[in-house]
C-alpha cells in the first residue's frame, strides 16, 4: 500500500474534535449501559453464580456439614452485589471491547486494522483460558493443601481442634481476585506478540531479557495473588511458559515479515 493511499484513508476518516468527543461519549454510554444491564441480569441469578464460585470448595467439604458464614449485617448483601458486578463485567466485556474497537479503528490504516483484529479476538479467549485453568485446576489443588492444616485431636480432650469456617465475603473476594489475576496474566502473549507485530520490540530482545522476565513473573505473581507460595508459583510458572510461547509466535511473525519485505 502506497503512502498516498494510506493518507487518503486517514483523510476520509478525519472528524472535527467535537465529533470525536461525541463519538467517545456514545461509546462510553454503550459500555456503561452494557455493564448495567449485565449487572442486573447477573444479580437476578447471583445465587447460582455464588454456587458456581464456591463449588471447588464445596466438592472438597461435601458430606461434612460445613457452611459459609458472614459476620457483618450487610456483608451477605454486598457480597451478592460484588458477585453480580464481577460477573456482569465478564459478560459485557465483548460489547465493551467492540466499542473500544469501533472508536479506535477509524484512526488506523486498513492494514493496521487487519493486523490488530486477531489480537482483539484473542484477548477474551486467553482471558477465559486463564480463568478456566485457575478454576478447574488451581483451586482444587490449593484448597486441598490449605484444608490440610485443619487439626482434629481425636481422643485427646485437652487439645483444641483447628477447623476451617470461611467468611463468604473473604472467600469470594479471593476467588474473584485469582480468576481476574489469571485472566489478566494470560494476556501476556497477546501483548508481547502485538508489540512484535508492530515492531516496537523484537524476539531477540525478549530472549535476551529472559532472566529478568522470570524474576518479573514471580514478582507479578506475588502482587496479584494472595501471600502464599502455592498460588504464587501456580501463576508464575504459566507466565514464564506464556513468555516463551510469545517468543515462538513472535519469531514466526518476524519470519513472515522478512519474507514479505524480500519479495
UniProtKB/TrEMBL annotation:
Q: Does the keyword Protein transport apply?
A: yes
Q: Record's PROSITE patterns?
A: TATC (PS01218)
Q: How does it sit in the membrane?
A: Multi-pass membrane protein
* Pfam (any one): TatC
Q: Which GO terms describe its biological process?
A: intracellular protein transmembrane transport; protein transport by the Tat complex
InterPro entries (UniProt xref): Sec-indep_translocase_CS, TatC
User: Which residue spans traverse the membrane?
Assistant: 28-46, 83-104, 116-138, 171-200, 212-227, 233-250
Q: Which residues form a coiled coil?
A: none
Places the protein is found:
Cell membrane; Membrane
List the GO molecular function terms.
proton motive force dependent protein transmembrane transporter activity
Q: Which GO terms describe its cellular component?
A: TAT protein transport complex
Q: Which UniProt keywords apply?
A: Cell membrane, Membrane, Plasmid, Protein transport, Translocation, Transmembrane, Transmembrane helix, Transport
The keyword Translocase belongs to this UniProt entry's keyword annotation: no
Protein family (similarity comment): Belongs to the TatC family.
Q: How does it assemble?
A: The Tat system comprises two distinct complexes: a TatABC complex, containing multiple copies of TatA, TatB and TatC subunits, and a separate TatA complex, containing only TatA subunits. Substrates initially bind to the TatABC complex, which probably triggers association of the separate TatA complex to form the active translocon.
What is the stated purpose of this protein?
Part of the twin-arginine translocation (Tat) system that transports large folded proteins containing a characteristic twin-arginine motif in their signal peptide across membranes. Together with TatB, TatC is part of a receptor directly interacting with Tat signal peptides.
Do you know which PANTHER family this protein is assigned to?
SEC-INDEPENDENT PROTEIN TRANSLOCASE PROTEIN TATC, SEC-INDEPENDENT PROTEIN TRANSLOCASE PROTEIN TATC, CHLOROPLASTIC-RELATED
Q: What is this protein called?
A: Sec-independent protein translocase protein TatC
Organism whose genome encodes this protein: Azospirillum humicireducens
* Record gene name: tatC
Amino acid at each position: 500500500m502506497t503512502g498516498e493511499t494510506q493518507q487518503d484513508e486517514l483523510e476520509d476518516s478525519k472528524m472535527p474534535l467535537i465529533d470525536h468527543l461525541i463519538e467517545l461519549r456514545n461509546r462510553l454510554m454503550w459500555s456503561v449501559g452494557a455493564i448495567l444491564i449485565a449487572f442486573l441480569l447477573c444479580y437476578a441469578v447471583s445465587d447460582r453464580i455464588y454456587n458456581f464460585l464456591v463449588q471447588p470448595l464445596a466438592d472438597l467439604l461435601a458430606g461434612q456439614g460445613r457452611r459459609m458464614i458472614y459476620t457483618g449485617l450487610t456483608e451477605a448483601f454486598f457480597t451478592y452485589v460484588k458477585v453480580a458486578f464481577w460477573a456482569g463485567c465478564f459478560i459485557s466485556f465483548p460489547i465493551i471491547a467492540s466499542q473500544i474497537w469501533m472508536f479506535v479503528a477509524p484512526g488506523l490504516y486498513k492494514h493496521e486494522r487487519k493486523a490488530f483484529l486477531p489480537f482483539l479476538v484473542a484477548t477474551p479467549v486467553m482471558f477465559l483460558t486463564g480463568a478456566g485453568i485457575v478454576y478447574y485446576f488451581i483451586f482444587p489443588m490449593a484448597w486441598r493443601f490449605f484444608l490440610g492444616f485443619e487439626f482434629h485431636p481425636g481422643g485427646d480432650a485437652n487439645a483444641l481442634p483447628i477447623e476451617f469456617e470461611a467468611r463468604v465475603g473473604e472467600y469470594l473476594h479471593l476467588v474473584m481476585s485469582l480468576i481476574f489475576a489469571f485472566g489478566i496474566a494470560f494476556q501476556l502473549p497477546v501483548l508481547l506478540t502485538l508489540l512484535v507485530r508492530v515492531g516496537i520490540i523484537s524476539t531477540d530482545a525478549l530472549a535476551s531479557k529472559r532472566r529478568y522476565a522470570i524474576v518479573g513473573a514471580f514478582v507479578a505473581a506475588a502482587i496479584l495473588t494472595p501471600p502464599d507460595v502455592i498460588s504464587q508459583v501456580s501463576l508464575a510458572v504459566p507466565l514464564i511458559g506464556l513468555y516463551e510461547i510469545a517468543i515462538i509466535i513472535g519469531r514466526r511473525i518476524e519470519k513472515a515479515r522478512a519474507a514479505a519485505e524480500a519479495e
